[in-house]
Every structure is written in structure tokens, then in C-alpha cells.
Amino acid sequence: MRRKVKNRNIVGPDFVYNSQKLEKFINYVMQAGKKETARKVIYGALDTIKEKTGNPNPLEIFDLAIKNAGPMTEVRSKRIGGANYQVPREVRPERRLALAMRWIRDAARGGKGKPMHIKLADELISASKNEGSAIKKKEDTHKMAEANKAFAHFAW
Length: 156
Known about the structure:
Distance between the termini: 9 Å
CATH topology: Ribosomal Protein S7
Structural class: mainly alpha
Largest sheet: 2 strands, antiparallel
Radius of gyration: 18 Å
Order of helices and strands: HHHEEHHH
Number of helices: 6
């Protein structure tokens, strides 16, 4: 069993929406320590979401997208008797959040030809509708866990 992490950095809420989750996502989007640039991208994406969906609170769509993109199960490699097995495991809530944010960010970065705030807004909107690259990645993870269900008895 894992030990509890004692020195975990707890991020404060962001300035505009007063959301800890959004501030954490800003940290995920940030590159080379340029937090103000990351903030501009995120807030620009939320403004774009507001325009495209007509929802006055884009934070609802953001939360729904994060919830939809987070995987419930994943496979972890375990060595038993000289063979490596892909053992399906349930995902802890912190890791679920981290994976969802990473997959949404990477899916937005993968698109070419548009500004980042528009790509990010499109990915968040599609993830809130259970579509898009981040959702496909989650479904692939679930399929892998389902395919290796026979090795579930090796779970530690």
C-alpha cells in the first residue's frame, strides 16, 4: 500500500473563477514557467466556450469535460514468474484528475493551425459531450483494462 504523501503542494484558487481545479489546469498548460501566458490561454479558452455554447458559466463545461475524460480503470504492468502481465487496476481520484488534464492538454496541443485557446476550447467542449481525442484515449485505456480482466486476480 502506498504511503501518504506529506509534502504535497496544494494550489490556491485562481483569481477569476475561484476554482482550485482551474488553477491546477493552468499549471498543466504552463510551459517554461510562463504562468501568465498559460492564464491568458485558459481564460481565452473559457471566453471562447462562453461564446460557442452560450453558457454563461464555462466552468460547468470545464468540470464536465474533466469528469468525462478521467479513466476509471487502467492497466499496470506486474512481473510474475518471469512474465509481465498487464493487470487492470482502479484509478485513484488524484491520478484520474491528472490523467484527464494531461490528455485534454495534449489533445489540444496536437492540433495544428489554430491558436491554442481555440484548440483548447474545442477540446473541452468535445470532452464535455463525450467526444474528442481525450475521450478516445480514456476509452482505449478502458478497453485495455477490459481485455486484461483475466489477470485481475494478480492485483496487489
